[in-house]
Specification:
Helix content: 55-70%
Number of strands: 7
Oligomer: single chain
Structural class: mainly alpha
Strand content: 5-15%
Distance between the termini: 61 Å
């Protein structure tokens, strides 16, 4: 019997001879011989000349130009004559002596496949850099999650197969995606992949390591594509990804390829993450002294910092990951819709709407918190919907953790921890047990446990037990001038300009002072506050964000509205109609159609609530979804006249899902009017 050892080689003149000799010297189990197949993948450093001496003793194949590791393996497979196959990297990071142990295990246990793991065993923890190790762990964990495996080292070099099995796989790989591809194809055939510890002597990029961060992205793509390529979720993800990439590259082209201009954003998170990466701490200052920043929360800046650190400071890698997250939002929304509605097409419609929503697209690549927060909060909703059906401890822990992470990313949900326990107690009110009470206590404890390091930091640094000073600043700098502008019949900008503390020094003012002055002024104008609240509620649901989307393409209106559209509709409808009519003949027409779309969605959302209640489909999940939408609407009131579509983005999956129920109700009634009683949903 024979073990075929495939050695792909590209520019390895310093190690290839030693590699071949060490492979030759391996003593295989009794009765086995070795077949060595070397593929010179277009080497240009002299490796090819060295291999000429092995033409008569090894099977040496050649590529005229570099085509990648995957293509080298595919080139070798038709030449394999052995019953078992394994790949051997020419850089000698792994020890060929481990091949004998692997083959023995394959034979003893009659295995189809066996991986050699560099991370099994306490002594096998060395790595070339932590970023490579972190990427390895990420790929392995994702493989286990997607394919139900329990492997520790997915990208390992040593993957041993029965030859007939490996040859039967429809490989398409070209570069380093060989590893995730064979893993995915093996897993899809229902085969569990066992592992055995192997030795590992890593080398770094300076020593010739060729894999890069973009190969990691390729591996992620391969794992996901093979898992979902026959799944509607995957196609919605592809649609979302394609649209986001298209808009991103169009924006990049418009600004002449200046990546930073495209992704920077205005919330300061880019600057904080850059300072973290440069070692200047959690600060927004561009130059020394670097003061600790009190306005923001750490989730998003540290997320950006981690990606920058992982990629060696590559903003291209960082924005690629964020776009990937943004493309996941429609998929998460589809899962949420499935928990809320029994209608067959609801999930697909919600996914498509989220994939094509202009603000969702735009904020997938600009450095704002929305993409990461929406993903984290969406995962929390899915976990909590599962908890409502099956209140297990595992779901309690994970939902609390994800809500905590979402809160550290965007403090909008910091008071959500009050709503969730109350809802749990209400939902299980007829069967409250000690077990339910323990889970409520566990949820609250873990939520605050996630927040506690940051709360402690703010207490030690700023003498405040709060996530950030954002609320006092918004009260003073946004809500108060909004109320005053309505009460005094002036513009918001004018009232902001008359503030005692200006934008330049507001962040260095005591938050307690700002809160006290803001609350005092706001309470003096209760009628204006009520008017603002009604206006904000309407704006929260109907603001489209299309103007901001068009401005990213350098499309600006010929003239702006002198006042918010809602106020003009109520006070000066004819003037508003004139402006709208004029703008309809310009490139601004999409703004008005988008606004009309969101007014329709809002109507259908409330109609959907009525329909679900009337049809006895108002499940606990729907109840929680409606409460969540109301919560977000109320908490965004603090943003005064600056409320826009951005604040609605995290709950758009909920709004779209319930609105679809409203559409079904409307559709059914129209059909019945024409004498058709049996409607397929």
């Amino acid at each position: 019997m024979k073990l075929s050892i495939i050695i792909p080689v590209y520019n390895e003149k310093n190690t290839i001879l030693d590699c071949i000799e060490r492979v030759r010297s391996v003593a295989l189990p009794l009765g086995f011989e070795k077949e060595i197949i070397i593929v010179d993948d277009g080497s240009t450093d002299g490796t090819g000349e060295l291999l000429k001496s092995f033409d008569n003793t090894c099977n040496v194949l050649r590529h005229e130009k570099n085509r990648g590791k995957g293509m080298a393996i595919r080139t070798a497979l038709p030449h394999v004559t052995g019953e078992y196959i394994v790949t051997q990297d020419a850089d000698l990071e792994v020890d060929p002596n481990d091949l004998a142990r692997m083959l023995s295990k394959m034979l003893d246990e009659n295995l189809t496949v066996l991986y050699g793991s560099r991370w099994l065993g306490k002594e096998r923890k060395s790595y070339s850099s932590f970023s490579f190790y972190a990427g390895n762990i990420l790929l392995s964990r994702l493989t286990n999650l997607l394919y139900g495996q329990k492997i520790t080292d997915e990208p390992t070099c040593y993957k041993m197969f029965r030859a007939d099995f490996l040859k039967s796989l429809p490989l398409k790989c070209k570069r380093f995606e060989y590893c995730p591809e064979v893993t995915a194809l093996t897993s899809l055939r229902g085969i569990k992949i066992p592992e055995i510890p192997i030795s590992y002597k890593p080398r770094n990029i300076a020593e010739g390591k060729k894999i890069r961060w973009h190969d990691g992205l390729g591996a992620l793509k391969t794992l996901i594509v093979y898992r979902f390529k026959k799944n509607i979720f995957f196609y919605v993800f592809l649609l979302a990804l394609a649209v986001r990439l298209a808009v991103f590259f169009i924006n990049l082209h418009i600004v002449g390829g200046d990546l930073i201009t495209v992704i920077h954003g205005q919330d300061g998170y880019f600057d904080v993450s850059r300072n973290l990466f440069l070692g200047n701490g959690f600060s927004i200052n561009p130059t020394p002294p670097f003061f600790e920043y009190s306005y923001g929360v750490p989730g998003y800046p540290y997320f950006l910092y981690f990606l920058l650190w992982l990629s060696g400071g590559s903003y291209a890698f960082t924005v690629a990951i964020q776009i990937f997250l943004g493309a996941l939002i429609p998929v998460i929304g589809m899962h949420i819709a499935r928990y809320l509605l029994p209608f067959r097409r609801a999930s697909l419609i919600v996914g498509i709407l989220l994939a094509l929503a202009p603000y969702q697209i735009l904020f997938s690549f600009i450095f704002y918190t929305e993409a990461l927060f929406t993903v984290l909060f969406g995962i929390f909703l899915i976990l909590f919907f599962k908890f409502i059906k099956n209140p297990s401890l595992r779901l309690t822990v994970w939902s609390a953790m994800f809500l905590g992470l979402a809160t550290l990313t965007k403090p909008t949900v910091q008071y959500y921890v009050i709503i969730v326990p109350i809802f749990i107690l209400w939902h299980f009110r007829k069967e409250i047990t000690k077990n339910i009470l323990k889970k409520v206590a566990c949820f609250v404890f873990l939520f605050f446990l996630v927040l506690s390091p940051w709360l402690y930091r703010n207490y030690k640094t700023f003498d405040m037990i709060n996530l950030s000073a954002q609320m006092p600043f918004n009260l003073y700098g946004v809500l108060m001038p909004s109320v005053l502008s309505i009460a005094n019949h002036t513009s918001f900008v004018k009232e902001q300009e008359s503030l005692k503390y200006k934008a330049a020094d507001i962040f260095f003012t005591n938050p307690k002072t700002l809160s006290h002055e803001a609350v005092t002024q706001i309470l003096r104008h209760p009628i204006a506050l009520v008017e603002l609240s009604i206006l904000n509620g309407f704006t929260f649901f109907t603001h489209d964000g299309m103007l901001t989307f068009l401005q990213a393409f350098r499309i600006n209106p010929v003239s702006y509205l002198p006042k918010p559209a809602t106020i003009m509709f109520l006070t000066e409808p004819l003037e508003l109609a004139k402006i709208v009519w004029f703008q309809l003949s310009t490139a601004m027409a999409p703004v008005f159609f988008a606004r009309l779309f969101w007014i329709t969605v809002t109507f259908l959302f409330f109609l959907g609530i009525y329909h679900l209640w009337r049809s006895k489909l108002f499940s606990p999940q729907v109840s929680f979804a409606v409460i969540t939408v109301i919560y977000f609407m109320l908490t965004t009131m603090i943003n005064g006249l600056t409320v826009n579509a951005r604040f609605r983005m995290p709950i758009e999956p909920l709004i779209f899902a319930v609105a679809y129920a409203g559409f079904i109700f409307l559709y059914q009634n129209i059909k019945r009017k024409y004498g058709i009683d049996n409607i397929r949903n």
